[in-house]
Amino acid sequence: MLPGPELTLLLWIFSCISSLSSASSTSRKCDEVLATPLSHTAFTSSSVYSGGYGAGYAKLNRRGGAGGWSPGDTDRYQWLQVDLGTRKQVTFIATQGRYSSSDWTTQYRLLYSDTGKNWRPYRQDGDIWAFSGNSNSESVVRHDLQHAIITRYVRIIPLEWSEEGRIGLRVEVYGCSYWADVINFEGQGVISYRFKMKKMKILKDVISLKFKTTASNGVLLHGEGQQGDYISLELKRSKLLLMINLGNGPLSDPVYGISVGSLLDDDHWHSVIIERYRRNVNFTLDRHTQHFRTNGEFDHLDLDYEISFGGMPFSAKPSSGGRENFVGCMEGITYNGDNITNLVKRKKIDTSSFRNLTFSCSETHSFPLFFNATSFLRLPGLSDSDTLSVSLSFRTWNPSGLLLYTALADGVVEVGLTEGKVTVYINVTQKKNMRIDISSGSGLNDGQWHNVYLHALENCAMLTIDGDEASTVRTVIPIQIRTGGQYYFGGIYTDGYFLRTNTPPAQRSFQGCMQLIHVDDQLADLVAVEQGNMGTFENVSLDMCAIIDRCVPNHCEHRGRCSQTWDSFSCSCNGTGYTGATCHTSVYEQSCEEYKHLGKTSGTYWIDPDGSGPVGPFKVNCNMTVCCGFGKFCADSCCYFAEGSPLTWWVGRANERHFYCADSCCCCFAEGSPFTWWVGRANERHFYWGGSGPGIQKCACGIERNCTDPKYYCNCDADQTREDAGLLVYKDHLPVSQVVVGDTNRAGSEAKLTVGPLRCQGDGNYWNAASFNTPGSYLHFPTFQGETSADISFYFKTSSSYGVFLENLGNADFIRLELKAATVVSFSFDVGNGLVELSVRSSTPLNDDQWHRVVAERNVKEAVLQLDGHYKEVRPAPPQGHTRLELYSQLYVGASGGQRGFLGCIRALKMNGVTLDLEERAKVTPGVKPGCSGHCTSYGQHCRNGGQCMEKYNGYSCDCTLTAYDGPFCTEDVGGYFESGTLVRYDFLPERGLPAIRDVKSLSPLLPTEGNLTQEELVFSFSTSNAPSILVYISSRTQDYLAVVLRHNGTLQIRYSLGGLREPFTIDLDQRNMANGQPHHINISRQERNVRLQVIIMRTVMWFYFSIKHFSAAVLIEKYNTPGFVGCLSRVNFNNIAPLKAALRSGIVAPVTTQGILVESNCGASPLTISPMAAANDPWHMDSGTPMEPFIHTVMFLIMSVVLAGIIAVVIFTILCTLVFLIRHMFRHKGSYHTNEAKGAESADCADAAIIVNDPAFTETIDESKKEWFI
For residues 597 and 594, what is the distance between their CA atoms, to the nearest angstrom? Predict the structure, then answer.
């Protein structure tokens, strides 16, 4: 399938080509004076004030008579009518007041008709339009019609007039002649247009016609072929249905039907144009065009013999029968350049099926009435009759309303619409109150014509809907009927007020149309009502039905479901993936990159790559940490497209393809074409394979010249079992939609093909930015197209307190977004109804050089402005008025029209789902630079756990080198599972050994060296079920050490030895057994003599504070084996050193060694997630790490789990104690600080013995083989 922009362009080109023949006729000016040349008799009116005020004097700029027309009464029931003689094309209208008077019309409506009956109001922007008139008697006010009308009669209805006088009017109508052949279809005759050839294979079609009818069903055209192809245009329930079948494809059902329009049985002309080129179709009804693409694989429409107009052809298949023929009029029928109506008139086409072929439309006898909320019609009937018989037809969108009310001699009868069904209420008070309720029908507020018939007489009442006997409801009533003689339709109004009824207030009026009203089985003479000869009415428009389908065209986007009442519509967006008043705004992000910066982890997400554009949301698998399987780590997010995604719109980085084969052919040729190929975008064949490129027709081995057989360019072309694999990376050809394998009939030939997922990386649109450096700098783009629906979103940051973000102008319309003050963002526009301005105010300054997000939307229902996801203003659209935003100038970003320019950065500017390429335009624009620096000022807080934010040209990344974490935001634990015998050892380098390795590029940027420490911080997490054990041990060449151990009962103990001559300081946490298999987090920090300990157990945080003092009790090391640690350790960090991460990451060069089996694991610890909000709302603010002080000479970091034999341990223990005695003597004066450790260290055999807890039952010792001493 072609993407939206390409499809639209193709159809536009096709439309231009197909309309060349008619361009000359339509391009001529159509502004002739139509009314002034007419005689006085062509002008008529509702009434005349006096002889000199007649309608014939209402010609523009004429002074005859009293200088114009004035009616006898000054009210809204007056009208001035002009008969143009024949049907004309009217393009604009002009008015004046009555000459030299105080009489003029300030507002009016325009009605038009072909017959002088069944008037149609002029509509604009979906509403019955009210034109602004004059403010004095002499000036001329002219209005160009938004769309031309074809009519013979024009009627002007004054709505408002001069406060100083009365209605006064002179008028002129402008346009040109119009002519078309008309054919009347009575329901029997069918026009069959025979092809010159028996079978037609048609690639392109252009079909046009106009029709009018009072029938809700009927076939307008039909053509079919023997292979199953057909085209059919049919009226169904007053809507137009187009169905096209281009043949039975093997992959999907190629039948495609699309329904447009509504209320098409209104006996007014409707224009239809069908343009098809291959599978692309433009379907236009009354200037509203639907673009679609037929299903299936074929491009030609194969028709046999003929195509028929007005019904099914006699040669149609039996399965096509059962459909009604068209009843009404058609004109201007053309089929692929042939004027069918003209051929019929010239008798070039067989019309024998017509009983009486006429070339004029027969008049209908209906006289519709149009009711609003304050309307009523009163008709007389028989008085004191024992039978009540009333029927009428109605159409409405409202679920409730009063249809009929009549007072009986001793009761009332009400007929109403309640929740879409007709209800009848009869109350008779002869002897006692007798109430009867009956109802029938459902869903009758669907805008279709429905007939109601009520017949009541003594002891019986019957209600029938739409003449359906199945809907008839009968009831036996023990009462007598005596009619009162007056019937009210649509409302009840007498003596200046509406009567109280038994119906709820919302149902006491009717909004809609009625016709064919029968009282006492007699058709009401509504013409006599109009002339004032019978009955009376109030606020009823006679001889017209101006009901509006507010769901056509459907303003609910993205398959939103439209529902309506009389004066408004609403959209249900459930299940669409969109939200808002018109289902315009996507509820999903546009890429994995955006989800990543909301703090989301890798997983499956819905994305909507074009936002509010035509492509719907689909699922992808987002990988936030690795580069989509390309073997390298990257900071950008990646995604894999899920099954069924519309890949043709958003092509990512690569499809991966594997071809396992034996004696098969990839690039070998058959008659000039390869046996095997794949199909990409636009259904094009491609003959290159993974690792190769377009036009090369080789596999990867052919490019690298290492194929199994050098005579071939693919391994699969050789007669051996081999594989061809690689990545397809040319975006314009992706995705792979089909692979065709030929050469399938050779004996011994076999192939197995796999196509991997489509992958993408990053989101350039998210970081697409430009910097505006001067107040006059700006970028310009093509005119913004957002006539009825527009959305704009972008990020900005600035240190200025004002500036225009963007602006686009029209003749009078415009749209603008600007920073009005340091805390105020404004969204203003004008669509012709006057200035509308929305403003949101932030509680904090916006000129803080931080990124802020602005989202603005405008549609026919409302306008919305939102700032940073918190501050929002919504402004409903006016119930009537202009709705189309018509812009003509270029779109200016940054400044325009002398407005205050914007200083700062704008990025990710999207308008109606399309990202504007600010960077590319900024490269060639003075005063504007591509990109924007300083992303870390806004997003640096997302780098957690000590990760450093690194600026990039189009974004930022988090450097996790000095942390114990990985991932895009340094939030993913790095840990390992230790089995028995596993050891990780990290040696700090001596200062003299450092220069030898400093030239290594991949070396950690901060390799610690020997020195003295007055402070340190140790952080790690662990989980184990074994105790006792040593978790962490840090030592030096002196007797200083830090050890964290689990005692035999699973409680935690921390030991410090800082002097070597004193006993260690011991911290015991006896509150909880931590050898319970659950994850625990430990944070130990020391500042000279003060120790702070944080323990997190099951998300419970505990803090402990200690001051190192003398400690007297010392425990000699027991000569037993040290129990090993079995469990999981993660997040290990000592003064910005991550030894465990260094051991597990092969790309990090560090003095670390591993003994035994170490399996990577995060130990089940809860990941630290980032906040999706801005920095001001982010509770995770990380302080910088503790600065490094000179460290002691040599330090060992041991995480160990070894069990050694007891005899070896005793021998090594004795040797090492001797060495320790010598070291203590040589280095007894160290450092420049003093400590007060626990007493008793002097009696220990060695420094390691001081880590033993003060518990006789604890029998653990440090394995001397794990220590390395430097003298």
Answer: 5
Contact 781, 887 (CB under 8 A): no
Task: Report the C-alpha gap between 794 and 984 in whole angstroms.
Answer: 49
Provide the Cα torsion 1153, 1156, 1160, 1164; round to 10°: -120
Structure tokens at 1094: 């944080």
Other C-beta atoms lying within 10 Å of the C-beta of residue 316: 20
More confident residue, 697 or 290: 290
pLDDT, tens only, 301-333: 988 888 999 998 776 555 555 789 999 999 999
47: left (phi over 0), alpha (psi -120 to 50) or beta: beta
Q: What is the mean pLDDT of residues 400-405?
A: 94
Q: Which residues contact residue 177 at a Cβ distance below 8 angstroms, ignoring those fewer than 6 apart? A: 32, 86, 88, 89
Residue with the bigger pLDDT between 452 and 476: it is 452
- Confidence category of residue 58, pLDDT binned at 50, 70, 90: very high
| Residue in the block written with tokens 């409202």 | 398
* H or E segment and range at residue 863: strand 862-867
303 is written with which tokens? 């028709």
Angstrom distance (rounded) from CA 693 to CA 684? 15
Residue 689 one-letter amino acid: W
Tokens of 1047: 């005692």
Q: Tell me the residue type at 37.
A: P
Determine if the peptide bond prior to 553 is cis (ω within 30°).
yes
Q: State both tokens at 314.
A: 């006699």
d(C-alpha 1065, C-alpha 987), whole Å = 25
Q: What is the mean pLDDT of the chain?
A: 79
pLDDT at 320: 56
Whether the CB-CB separation of 744 and 852 falls below 8 Å is answered with no
Q: b/e for 991-1015, b at 16 or more Cβ within 10 A?
A: eeeeeeeeeeeeebeebbbbbebee
Sign of the alpha-carbon dihedral angle for 942, 591, 915, 857: negative
Element (H, E) at 991: none
pLDDT value at position 72?
93
- 52-56, 916-920, 1114-1118: lowest mean pLDDT where? 1114-1118
Q: What share of the chain is helix, strand, coil (3-state, %, to 5)?
A: 10, 40, 50
Which residue matches tokens 């991997």? 756
Per the CB < 8 A criterion, the answer to whether 329 and 213 are in contact is: yes
Q: Residue 1205: what residue type?
A: A
| pTM recorded for the entire structure | 0.70
**1225-1247: pLDDT as tens digits:** 444 433 333 333 333 333 333 33
Q: For residues 367 and 117, give the distance between their C-alpha atoms in angstroms, rounded to a whole number.
A: 8
Cα(1018)–Cα(459) distance, rounded to whole angstroms? 97
Cα–chain center distance at 500: 48
